[in-house]
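Hello everyone,

My group is preparing for a crystallization screen and wants a predicted model to guide construct design. The compound we'll soak is magnesium ion. Before spending weeks at the bench, it would help to have a computed complex in hand. I've included the protein sequence and the ligand's SMILES below. Output in structure-token form would be ideal because that's what our pipeline reads.
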Amino acid sequence: MATKKASAAETESKSSASRSTSEPVATKKPAAKPAERVTAVEMGARQREISVSEFFTKNRHLLGFDNPRKALLTCVKEAVDNALDACEEAGILPDVTVRLEVVSNGQPVAASQANRFRVTVTDNGPGIVRQQIPRIFAKLLYGSKFHRLRMSRGQQGIGISAAGMYGQLTTGKPVKIISRIGPKAAAHFFEVQIDTKKNEPLVHENKQIDWEQPRGTQVALEVEGKYQKGRASVDEWLEQTSIANPHVKLIYHTPEGETKEYARTYHELPPQPREIKPHPYGIEFGMLLKMLQDTKSHTVAGFLESDFCRVSTQIAEEICKAAKVSPEAKPRELKGPMAETLYKTLQETKLMAPPTNCISPIGEKAILSGLYKQIKGEFYTAVSRPPAVYRGNPFIIEAGLAYGNRPQDQNKPQQPTMPKAEGEGEEEDSELARVIRYANRVPLLYQQSACSTFKAVLSTTWKNYGLSQSRGALPGGPMVIFVHMASVWVPFTSESKEAIADYDEIQKEITLALRECGRRLGLFVRRRERAASEFRRRNIFELYIEEVVEACNRLKGGKLPKEKLKAQLQKIASTRTGGQKTDQALGKTGAGPEGLPHSIIVTAEGIEGETALATQIEADQATAVTTAEPHLQEEKQANVASASKRKVATPSLLEQSSRKVKTTPGGKSSKLTKTTVLRKPK
Amino acid sequence: MTTTKTKKPTVVEKKLISLADIVIQAAERSKDPTLQIPIRALSNVAFNEKKGLIEMGSKKQERSFFNVGMAKRFMQTVLVADALSELQRADLTTSLREIYYRTKHTIKDSHENTFDAQDESDPVIEDLEVSLAALREELHVSAENRGSIVGPVIFGDDGDRVDCSKLGKGGYSVPSIVEPEYLEIRRCTADFVLLVEKGTQWNRLSEDKFWRRYNCILLTGNGQPPRGVRRLACRLHEEHRLPVYVLVDNDPWGYYIYSVVKQGSINLAFESERMAIPKAKFVGLSSADPENYELPRNVGIKLNDKDIARAKELLNYQWFKKPTWQAEIKRMLASGLKYELDALANKDFQFLTKKYLPKKLQERDWLD
Ligand SMILES: Nc1ncnc2c1ncn2[C@@H]1O[C@H](COP(=O)(O)OP(=O)(O)O)[C@@H](O)[C@H]1O
Ligand SMILES: [Mg+2]
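Reply:
Good plan to model first. Here are the tokens for the complex, ready for your pipeline.
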């Protein structure tokens, strides 16, 4: 079911993409005029600067605005990506609030029916200096991230201004910005639009205002959109964002009036990724030409040495020699075949791989904490691969798994205890694993089947790890597979940045990470099975111990210290049935799961594994609720008939309480696919 | 647990309590509580040729609690021991079946019963008999009465005088426990004991007053004779020097019944000393009888596979190694037929009483 929806979303995006590209071509005029030569003069009359609005309209599918639903998501995404990038770069643990509101002209409209929304994203980041604000939000291709090679979410400086442009084109409304760079500075309010002819900002409003936040930025866009939950929705994207970014505190006010809180469960910022110069293997010929033009160096040798990484003075000279280019030649004068030879030589020269410390992976602990927080399961594991390089670009692959149903969902007998006859029970087991994909911590929701990560999941033999898998399909079972690629340059299959392109090096790394996760899962599954059989044995003994003790007591005239004998026999039973190991695999001791690094096992009795981590998560959530408590109190006191529904999106908190109290308020069985459980405050 | 007077525990009770001590001491030392139970199987019996008895060997099996295959048996053994010690304290005698009911219950927090059928508790009692070297009557457990006696013998049973020559054709029902404390042989004027396998043939002999004509005691155990019948025959043999003749069907099971009376059983080899009658004689039916008494072939029954296999087993038992017995069994196998005692009626309803037995006894035509 999961995959069907995803592919539906893909075809949707594809068809709309093809629509928008085919429209301009649909010219049915030539019938009137027979084939006619156009003169240079006539052509020259038609040649002019393409306006940004035209560019945007033609390319909106490339930028993620192909349909109203996706456009709404893209607006949220661009704003949140920027907020997170800015906070992390400034070394601030991000607090981000996303508010979606229905904009109606008079009549109240249900969120699902509305076609106009206000998107407001607020962060506690460094803020933006006043002079830059208009250009950042109202000039396409203006940003701080394009001219450097550094891992970040945004890349082209096209994101937020494109969203603003989209809003402007669909609603005519300007982008509203509040930004403040510190408690001592003033907060500035701006309303800006793009002059679509000149690609220059038009400032409608610019004033100092009072703002309750000491620092940060708020962006508000009014856009045409469609709000629909489910696959590839804003809700899903935010939820997945919180899984891969457990260091972020995210509050989401849905257009339906709910508030979902994704607590911060990991209290360290990801290490700052370092900026690196491009590696010769990672550039294309066009790029080399541009670099030759832009360089500050006066000689080719100097250019090679200073504008690339891993090129020393000596190697630069060797390259020049091999390319038959004078080391003293001026870079700007290197053109045509000469430049081409230089490019080829660069690719053929043996060079050290680029430094890899420029990449900041999420890290195993953080992935675990994200998965544990957001997905209900019994077993979690995470793997960060060592850095690798594709085409001169360093990258790191990370993978994770959340597997199984939480113990309280296991009322039905556990998976395949009974051997199945041919064709039996296939319907019930048809639940397939779900893949969640990330590039530089940003969830990828579209184009799943084109994505290298997805292909690697399919080509992994999950049967080896005790899961079912039909040929060429996802493995079966209640499982979420997490794959993340972190790189200074993530190779997407298209401009819309929805799927990671296939490179052998990338595939290999993803496969290795998945295999390690699978191996641990297999270990967990097998150990659990073994422990269960030992446990059945122990149960037999424990069943009879009572009888034997009572009989002995009667034989001894009722004068036996019964409890002592019982305890002694139970201890023997335990040691004879795998003892500690069984307890451990069944999750009865607090100790970590042996041989399962970076894993969490959840059982009816509690958590084991990265327990400190998991309990910290739960403690955090507990405090999250206590902070929410005053609101609830107020509501009660005010005796408001709860017009504002407040829901707390902390599923594992809910589980935790239901684990203890055994009642799940409101929420019935919660499967992996439904990762958030909402809780009403009454 | 009715009377908990501070009575001194009996020897048997002490033995039963020792089971609890095994558990307690093992638990104290973190060891698996284990009972040593003599093996009651062919592998642990030996034929004592001198005494003419099957004797139990010294092989023992371990019954451990912490062994999935034995845990339940172990628990059952302790439960039965508890019930038996209760009998000791209350000084009651009860039946195997009552022991079954007394110890049967559903285990707490489960759907499992301690015992599901009596055939689970009976062997546990036998296990305890052998392990504790206590006789069943010492354990105060009796089997159902299964067996009848008629003839010139007078018993004292709970103070009642039972004259078995005055009980009509039904006779006296042989109790399960016939030890002197329970059953006294006051007077016996018979010349021999005839132990008949089948109740039907015993009825015929009783109805025909065969015992009166030949001054004998007629005994039956309705099939494999229970311990009461065997023990009573043994007492009459030992205390009153009566020869014992055994009359069974001509099939492997008949042979084996005879051998049990004579040498003891494999299962209860520990009781042989008290029960076996090494001098007992096999009067019939012999595989030679059909020819000697001109029984037509058509009253025979074809030996089935089980019969043949059992017969071959018998051939290998040490106590059937005598040439006469080997010949007897082989003759049956060669004929491929077995004969029931009832088949003698083919000749005449009273053929057994009027012709067959008189001739046999007169000609001393029996096997030893
Ligand atoms: N919330 C924010 N806080 C601070 N700086 C921001 C914020 N949003 C955008 N910026 C700055 O504006 C630039 C342009 O953003 P954008 O148009 O999304 O392009 P990109 O993210 O690809 O660089 C960013 O590079 C960043 O320097
Ligand atoms: Mg951006």
